[in-house]
Protein 1
Amino acid sequence: MTRSLSKKARDILLLNDHGGYTVPAAELYPYQWNWDSAFVALGFAVFNHDRAWQELETLFSGQWDDGFLPHIIFHVDDSGYFPGAAVWGTNKTPQTSGITQPPVAASVTRWLLNTNEKIGKARAAALYPKLLAWHRWFHTYRDPLKNGLVLCVHPWESGRDNSPEWDAPAARVDTSSVEPYRRRDLALVDQGMRPSNQEYDQYIALLQHGRSQNWNHAAIADTGPFRVFDVGMSMILLRANRDLLALADRFGTSEECEELQARIKLSEDNIHYLWSDAIGAYGSRDAKTGNHFEMVTSASFLAFYAGVGGDRERAALMANFERIDGMVRYMMPSFDPAHPKFDPIRYWCGPIWAVVNKMIALGLIEMGHTKAGQRIVRDTCSIIEQSGFRESYSPVTGEGTGGSDFSWTAAIWLHLSENRSATSPGVAVPHKLEPE
Ligand code: GLC
């Protein structure tokens, strides 16, 4: 079973390979997406290291001069897709969107380097300054409180597009100037598994706002209609800074190492800003009102991956883990199953996403919660065995939701199954998962 699924997973990556970059899913997402590509590189690394590096390199071909790395690179046009390059209007070559996504690329770079030093050394050295520039962009434009925690200015930036955390801040977005448009996703996927039309209008209104500001990121972060301190983005950036520091140690200057150490300390010292005693978990906050949304999401459990929290916080998070485990068959739902807005098949309102599971599992195992981490690995593999390489999965039944033949799910399968059977403990692999 594992072998035939691994064959299928490779086939999906090869099928979705558009020549140096991989689309998340044919038709549904026909371009290069930022964090998708980073995870996809983990999958390619299992059978073609060179191709894994290439995935990151083509992604960084879309980097702007100020270090910003867009969430989509439109290498070629696909006229049926909305919103395409012309709608974003960023006027870059290659054409790109104007918002970013969670920065996992530094962590993946470190992992690729550690698993194959020979192929990786020169490639990692070349990527290092680009990664540093991107992280500095976050520190410059997305840290308004100068406390090491970062803003998202569009739900798409969080990568968890319609998480119920975003409902209240998105409700303030004026959608009255959005002209009629056609959503391709609804022709391809059941409407009950996708964001609502109202949410889509908000996404487009926010895009229009960015465009009206000529994608001036300082202005958008200052006055944009949607500004949230995203727990997922903040935890992922903190982790990525730790991995970037390891790269800086080899390829950077001592000043750069000190700069990154200071960033890491700043985020560690202030992460409590995202804590809520009411839910016993880290969560996101509205940057406009200061309100904590008080919702437990799968991103809350990225605290382990980020390496933050004292005994009290970790115990409370593990109590939430147990509670959620008691309510669903498979872990980790993207949203709290006890909350009235939980929906097991609608996108980020409940379904399991393999990439988030991968990060949660790694963090849990690193922090000594081995059983819980292995549970997540097992569940991820079980739902894929049951339902194939789907975009996401119901935590209640394990049924597949969203798109099919999905690149990052295939990549995570390859990555997890490879590392579950790894027999070479001497290899320093920071993302390695323990065998069952
Ligand atoms: C959806 C997901 C996002 C992902 C993209 C491409 O928008 O919410 O996280 O990057 O699809 O797969």
Note: Residues 101 and 158 are 6 Å apart (CA to CA).
Protein 2
Amino acid sequence: MRITVYLTDNRPEPWIKALREALPDAEVDVWAPGAPQADHAVVWAPPQQMLDEQAPGLKTIFNIGAGVDAILKLKLPPTTQLVRIDDGGMAVQMAEFVCHALVRHFRELDYYQEAAKDGEWTYRRPRQRQDFPVGIMGMGVLGQRVAKAVQHFEFPVNGWSRSPREVEGVRGFAGEAQLNDFLAASKVLVCLLPLTPDTRGILRHDTLSKLQFGGLLINVARGAHLVEDDLIALLDSGQLSGATLDVFQTEPLPADHPFWRHPRITVTPHASARTLRDETVAQIAGKIRAMDRGEPVAGVVDTARGY
Ligand code: NDP
Ligand code: OXD
């Protein structure tokens, strides 16, 4: 078995070493033009040339992230399966990140931090968590893990997905028809949708303004879900009271972008859930072994659906 590796923004050597250790029978090498035909490719943002050259015999493309929007911009070999990382240690990171943003906002920790700078011993009136229902857009692998974590803090949780999903303790909404009801039932909005033609620009004035007044946006999915100017207008009018943004239309976020300096926006550098090499390699190796046994694997992308 041969595996070819191409990882934009990652040093390939540690990945190749880890893949060789996990799959001792495999020949694993970095891809370069003219590389021999491989059975599987392990990639992040590969060049089109790699996919074209490898197309004839390539069985699987393993994308080392959960989101496949970038690779779906390329022309994929028609007979090759695209498999994404499902969880791989990202779900717990996402749960930590979202809970941190939520609790920081709900408990007004920024207020206390500012007061402490001046040595001020001062209280805010306690808020009711019932007044802060959390709406999670995208109830997949990550959204469900986030819902579970948020429930531990006893916030009401709403979930929105494409098809109806029953998740314990979560009020479920599905499809376009229930989007407005979902938004109206939520004050904190967490975006964990894949980026597809249906979800691009979904965080815009007319959707965000349906949230309960003074809401918080946490976008940890993709920058292109958000219409950036609409967010600034809603924050400046007070309709929204804050936003924690981990993903942006342009990454890295340009130094002169207004988000950096907006008093009610927190920026993190696409760091809410990092790809973890050991977990990812173990998952890929497990999937290759399962496929060799003829078993189905999780995370196979429906390219027509876009996720
Ligand atoms: P999944 O594929 O497991 O879940 C996607 C969810 O979105 C599903 O519940 C799906 O509905 C729902 N969905 C898709 N399209 C629509 C639609 N048009 N309307 C309503 N709901 C829709 O993905 P993951 O949970 O693994 O990951 C989600 C995204 O998080 C990734 O695509 C990626 O962009 C982002 N991400 C960001 C990271 C970061 O560091 N910031 C790290 C990792 C991922 P249904 O259940 O009906 O299929
Ligand atoms: C991913 C990401 O999709 O890191 O995995 O954004």
Note: The CA atoms of residues 62 and 115 lie 49 Å apart.
